[in-house]
Amino acid sequence: MINGDTILFALLIVTLINLARYFSALRSLLYIMRDAHPLLYQQVDGRGFFSTQGNWTKQVRLYHYIKSKEYHHHHDELFMAKCDRVRELFILCITLLVVTTAAAIIL
Predict the structure, then answer these.
(1) Pick the residue with more confidence: 20 or 4?
(2) Tens digits of per-residue pLDDT, 49-93?
(3) Which residues does UniProt call coiled coil (predicted)?
(4) What 3-state class would DSSP assign to 54?
(5) Which runs of consecutive H residues, i.e. helices, occur in the chain?
(6) 96 and 14 in contact (C-beta within 8 Å)?
(7) pLDDT at residue 45 above 90?
(8) Rounded CA separation 20/40 (Å)
């Protein structure tokens, strides 16, 4: 029989790995965004995005940009692919966080 702690630990490991994948994809998106969409890069505070002095309101701008799929009108296919990847990984991470939290409460 599988112990509840083992299930919770496995979910936590999978969630952390996917969270690392999400942050890595977000970093590469910001790197590509610097050349592909400089105005958006400035609007989302691309330089200070991961710093402690990062502006949260500017970072939310990137969330809304990706959530509403505004990148589908962009000319750079690599940029669009990275945006799709970040969006998919964000949805996966949020889902895993909810499932892991629910499992922690239940178990």
Answers:
(1) 20
(2) 888 777 888 888 999 999 999 999 889 999 999 999 999 999 999
(3) none
(4) coil
(5) 4-36, 38-43, 56-67, 77-106
(6) yes
(7) no
(8) 24
Dihedral angle computed from the Cα positions of residues 75, 79, 82 and 87, in that order, rounded to the nearest 10 degrees: -60
Cα gap 65→41, rounded to integer Å: 12
Residue type, 24: S
Q: Please compute the mean of the pLDDT values over residues 32-36 and round it to a whole number.
A: 93
- Look at residue 33 and tell me whether its pLDDT is greater than 90: yes
pLDDT at res. 38: 92
The span from the CA of 38 to the CA of 17, in Å, is 30
Query: Residue 23 is part of which domain span?
Result: 4-106
Count of structural domains within the chain = 1
One-letter amino acid at 29 equals L
99-107 long-range contacts (CB < 8 A, ≥24 apart) are 99/11, 100/8, 100/11, 100/12, 100/15, 103/7, 103/8, 103/11, 104/8, 107/4, 107/5, 107/7, 107/8
Global pTM? Answer: 0.88
